[in-house]
Amino acid sequence: MPHWGRPAKRQEFPQSPCRGPIRSARVSVLWGDHLGKINRNVYGHFTEHLGGCIYDAMWVGEGSSIPNDGGVRKDTAEALKRIQAPMIRWPGGCFADQYHWRDGIGPRATRPRTWNIWWGRDESNQFGTDEFMMYCTMSGAEPYLCFNVGSGTPAEALDWLEYCKGKENTKLTSMRAANGHADPYNVRYWSIGNENWGCGGNFDAEDYAREYARYVTFLNRFAEGGNVEFVACGLFLGDWNQKFFETMLRRPFARGRIQGVNHLSVPHYYFGCGDATKFTDEEYFWAFASIRILERFLQETRAIIEHYTSGKDRIGIALDEWGIWHPVPETGDTGLLQPNTLRDALLACATFNMMHGFGDAISMANIAQTFNVLQALAFTKGPKMALTPTYHAFDLFQPHMDAMALKTLVESPTFKGQIPAGIPFSQQQFVLTTTGGRREMPSEYLSASASLNEGKKQVCVTLVNIHLTEPIEVEVDLAGPDSPAVRGGTIRALTSASVHDENTLDKPEVIRATAPKPLLASGNKFVHAVPAHTAQALVLDLE
Ligand code: AHR
Questions:
Q1: C-alpha to C-alpha distance for 483 and 466, rounded to whole angstroms
Q2: How many CA atoms lie within 13 A of 534 on its CB side?
Q3: Helix, strand and coil in the chain, % to nearest 5
Q4: How far, in Å, from the CA of 541 to the mean position of ligand 1?
Q5: From ligand 1's centre to the CA of 180, what distance in Å?
Q6: Residue 425's pLDDT is what?
Q7: Does the pLDDT at position 17 exceed 50?
Q8: What Å distances lie between residue 518 and 15, 291, 477, CA to CA?
Q9: How far apart are CA 426 and CA 314, in angstroms?
Q10: C-alpha to C-alpha distance for 230 and 263, rounded to whole angstroms
Q11: How many angstroms separate the CA atoms of 324 and 93, rounded?
């Protein structure tokens, strides 16, 4: 058992115990170091007309024997409500820049059938704006809509905004009333296209900025005072973000300010590493090591935003698609349907821990995609529904929502994530660029973050030990001269016998987060064990 000395000053630590044979680590929660509130929208969701995400997971139709409210599937909406899902992004993804919202409103029997060019499936348009709003109401989530820039027009976007938010008696608001909703919808978040450097129109940064400014000219004017925020499409690679901001600043009336941008979307980060269930240990560790790459991209994005706004205007980072993407077929009714293992859930937990280190700089993050697609939270087939391990990761991390992020330092045993041989050449090149040519990425076995709840009576510390066989003994230290003492608390855990374990429609309960159990902890610091491949949420009561 190593000896733990309390640091005399906040940032000084005794010799790291992690060099010895005992797997031990220290998590120092710097009591006075507030990083800003963790926006609840960091726990956001993303749905697209792709595979089985919408039909039959969100929409089953009024005549269905599957329990529904006006056609909206109940069990999935209720599952989202239980984890306080804060927001849902819709209708895409690539599909958004093909979508014409008028196809999806009015009597359902007369809506046109269209072809989804991106995801190779027919589109019945039975699920449109009003149905999506119904789903949001039932799940308690805020809507986040994406305008069609790639194949649409500012006029079409303006009409959609008016259809949703218009208050005056106009043709469009009368249409909304005829479709059952006389009152305006409360849609705050709107993105001006999706991945416009690619499937959203293949723009370059300057052309996109000009198009962005053109859209926002009209949308902003209409939305004045209407509680509306716009999300611009950014990119991690190259100098897209710089060129976008520079072009915005060159507008004749910019007056040195980036106008009409509330969030910069940093599309889109997909972890990818080996098979969905039969991954190797090397691939397993690489997935976790590559969180570092995302972290670096986020740091760069934050610096670019600070540079171009000179701290005058607030632009949040919107990581509005993220998750793990396994090699599965993309098109048809089951496009991008992939299994979901404990590995995926732990990866989500460790990614959340990393995001919390950005405090309030990240204004939203939307895991891709909520149902039946990529890193889903639930699978559905007919009446069956299975919550995935990733759902339980969201459940476990709920106490962080809207809580104040506290700077958290982790001293942990490390490993060197090696780029697995199997990853595609293009991805290898991308990784090599970000690692400075190294084929490996050092990373920690333990990840952690901490936040202080609104009443300042509880601190939530989330710990993830990704080691495959060994527990880690962690000293949790509420560090700082004024740090309060802990007086017990609760603990929840997420684990299983193997990181390859999964929840399926036939075996839906293999993995789930445990119910809260009392935690024996006291004082400013305590030692606590995290078993191998386990995530834990400690909710500590403060004196
Ligand atoms: O989530 C699947 C696709 O990935 C989205 O449509 C697109 O935005 C991204 O490239």
A1: 29
A2: 20
A3: 30, 30, 45
A4: 41
A5: 32
A6: 66
A7: no
A8: 32, 31, 19
A9: 34
A10: 6
A11: 16
Residue with tokens 């469009």: 172
**SS3 call for 486:** strand
Q: Do 534 and 465 touch, CB atoms closer than 8 A? A: yes
Residue 407: pLDDT above 70?
yes
536 phi and psi, to 5 degrees?
-135, 145
Residue in the block written with tokens 């740090």: 483
Q: What confidence tier does 1 reach under pLDDT thresholds 50, 70, 90?
A: very low
Closest approach atom of ligand 1 to CA 94: 6
Q: Name which residue sits closest to atom 4 of ligand 1, judged by CA.
A: 93
Cβ neighbours, 10 Å, residue 275: 15
> In this predicted structure, what is the pLDDT of residue 502?
98
* 530 DSSP β-pair partners: 472
Closest CA to 401 of 36, 33, 38: 38
Set out the domains of the chain in order of their start, with CATH numbers. 3-37+406-542 (2.60.40.1180), 42-402 (3.20.20.80)
pLDDT digits (tens, 9 = 90+) for 371-401: 999 999 999 999 999 999 999 999 999 999 9
Place of tokens 């949420």: 537
Instruction: Kindly report the protein residue whose alpha carbon is nearest to atom 9 of ligand 1.
Output: 93
